[in-house]
Amino acid sequence: MENRITSLFGIKYPLIQAGMIWCSGWELAAAVSNAGGLGLIGAGSMYPDVLREHIRKCKAATNKPFGVNLPLLYPDIEKHVQIIIEEGVKIVFSSAGNPKTWTSILKEKGIKVVHVVANVKFAQKAVDAGVDAIVAEGFEAGGHNGREETTTMVLIPMMKNAIRIPIIAAGGIASGRQMVAAIALGADAVQIGSRFVASKESSAHENFKQTVVKTNEGETQLTMKQLVPVRLIKNKFFNEVQDAELHGASIEELKNLLGRGRAKKGMFEGDLEEGELEIGQVSAMIREIKSASEIVVEIMKEYLAVKEELCRNT
Questions:
Q1: In a domain, 254, yes or no
Q2: Residue 119, in any domain of the structure
Q3: Among 4, 73, 178, 227, which residue's Cβ finds the most Cβ atoms within 10 Å?
């Protein structure tokens, strides 16, 4: 299955596992890479020494390409970048910040750089910064999300018309059928997050995994748009945020409500009431916790079957 993305990264399938904070440690990244996709370590929830440890463990667990997801607003970003360079990581997916700051530095070290965006305007800025590919993430997604609420169905064709570098579709994708749709819309590959949260190798707390597979349609909602838009499972914390926003809370008041460590409390420590439970809309389709390799095989098998079905029917 060779295309622009598989050639860029040296992988078998155009399928990337999202670098989700508190969920994407070395075990998940290595498992996805070993299965033929591209695994990513989520650096946003790691201290520098922890990131180094995860990179080294991932290198020991796979001889296939893997990368690091690097939120550019991370407080110790300089240390993270230095560790990535020192440890010989060859692929970085950046997000949540200005790609101009670090892209040229990373590329000078021979690192492929991909930036995550939620609209065409920022995609064009990332292209100008020199990135190798774009992740275009629609409204359906859990983490990185846009205030415009543009869906993946609309965003990908807009991106295809606006930029010439490879496009990776994200948001609302957890199956082979959805992967076919994304590529038909103009994507070169897909990035999948929520489906891999509910994997055996995910570092998410078991309470969170079990909640994900029980989540039904309409039980997630985009919120905190004044700060950083995220899609959350509705729980006590979500209701407090909604109530504060409805009553005109200021940005400072919302920051105080959010406090420190809410995402860790929910996704990593398993506090289902006081924690922040980030997940995509597609969680309503996920009903079973499987190994990462099973998930990759299942998605690619369905992808090929649906492509064949479509060819027969045209």
A1: yes
A2: yes
A3: 178
Residues 6 or more apart whose CB falls under 8 angstroms from that of 294 comprise none
Rounded distance, CA 249 to CA 157, Å? 36
* Cβ proximity of 199 and 289 under 8 Å: yes
Statement to judge: residues 16 and 158 lie in one domain: yes
Residue 158 neighbours by CB distance under 10 Å:
16
Task: Tell me the whole-structure pTM to 2 decimals.
Answer: 0.95
Last residue of a domain, one of 189, 204, 219: 204
Tens digits of residue pLDDT in 227-273: 778 899 999 999 999 998 888 888 888 888 877 788 999 999 999 99
Considering the domain architecture, whether residues 101 and 194 belong to the same structural domain is answered as yes
Average pLDDT on 19-30 reads 95
Q: Is 65 part of any domain?
A: yes
- Rounded average pLDDT over 101-128: 96
Sequence-separated (6 or more) residues with CB below 8 Å from residue 278: 20, 142, 143, 230, 231, 232, 263, 266, 267
211-212-218-223 Cα dihedral, nearest 10 degrees: 90
* Cα(93)–Cα(59) distance, integer angstroms: 17
Domain residue limits at 242 = 206-282
Do 178 and 245 fall into the same domain?
no
What backbone phi and psi angles, to 5 degrees, belong to 35?
-85, -5
What pLDDT shows up at residue 213?
97
Give me the residues paired with residue 199 across strands: 290
Length of the chain: 314
- Assess if residue 310 is contained within a domain: no
Number of domains observed in the structure of the chain: 2
Asked whether residue 199 falls in the same domain as residue 225, the answer is: no
Q: 65: Cβ–Cβ under 8 A, 6 or more apart, which residues?
A: 9, 10, 11, 33, 38, 90, 91
Q: What is the pLDDT of residue 258?
A: 78
E strand or H helix at 240:
helix 236-246
